[in-house]
Amino acid sequence: MRSSLVPLGPPVSQDRVITSFPKCYTPAACLQLREHFHGQVSIACQRRSTGTVGEGRTHVQDDGPKTVLESNTHVPRRLRLSKVVVVGDLYVGKTSLIRRFCRNVFDRNYKATIGVDFEIERFEVAGIPYSLQIWDTAGQEKFKCIASAYYRGAQVIITTFDLTDLQTLDHTRQWLEDALQENEPGTCFLFLVGTKKDLLSGVACEQAEVEAVRLANEMEAEYWCSQVTGKQAHV
Ligand SMILES: Nc1nc2c(ncn2[C@@H]2O[C@H](COP(=O)(O)OP(=O)(O)OP(=O)(O)O)[C@@H](O)[C@H]2O)c(=O)[nH]1
């Protein structure tokens, strides 16, 4: 079935088109992909998940109700969008992580984030356009109150620390607490990300990761590590 939503902007890059799903999230579970699903239910689901998308009309014809979502390019449509907030101490690599993910670049020169910044990354999930709005916050204490104004309404909180500096891991609990304070309990997916894995190896790395996994379990977050340098970038 053809997606009835009008994509905004240029086509989504191939690596952002998601057609395979983890167990339980099969394409068959997506209403918009079911050929014989009742049109009115499909349109209701599309509306529900987007708020305002789909200025559709329902035509009742002789052979039963048929729903047509018409693309009206003059009417701005709201994107399906999730807000991701990245927090953590200064210099741990938040900006580098986001820039590698969104632009596939890495810069060794440190330029402190002033306040906040954000990137929009577009995906296509089961034929439906979907975007992540990724907020990069400043780690410097003096910008904390500016950055924290942007924590509200997050669906995902990524708390970062530097694997080579375990003090930054100790501080993650506070960063997470601050971000959670601005959001309804139980509404955010939580991740703890250890950065700069390329700078650490052997026992030191194992020890840092054991500690991080333990803390992630306590925070009910999922632990990941990253290295965003060179061609071996890995998140
Ligand atoms: N070797 C290595 N260096 C990294 C990695 N990620 C970031 N860096 C370096 O670490 C420094 C700090 O990175 P940023 O991404 O600017 O740190 P930040 O957390 O955004 O800093 P603030 O904006 O001050 O909060 C930069 O010099 C980066 O080049 C990594 O995976 N490996």
Automatic annotation (TrEMBL):
One of its GO terms (biological process) is protein transport. Its main location: Golgi. This is Ras-related protein Rab-36. It is a lipid-anchor. It comes from Camelus bactrianus. One of its GO terms (molecular function) is G protein activity. It catalyses: GTP + H2O = GDP + phosphate + H(+). Its EC number is 3.6.5.2. Its cofactor is Mg(2+). SUPFAM superfamilies: P-loop containing nucleoside triphosphate hydrolases (SSF52540).
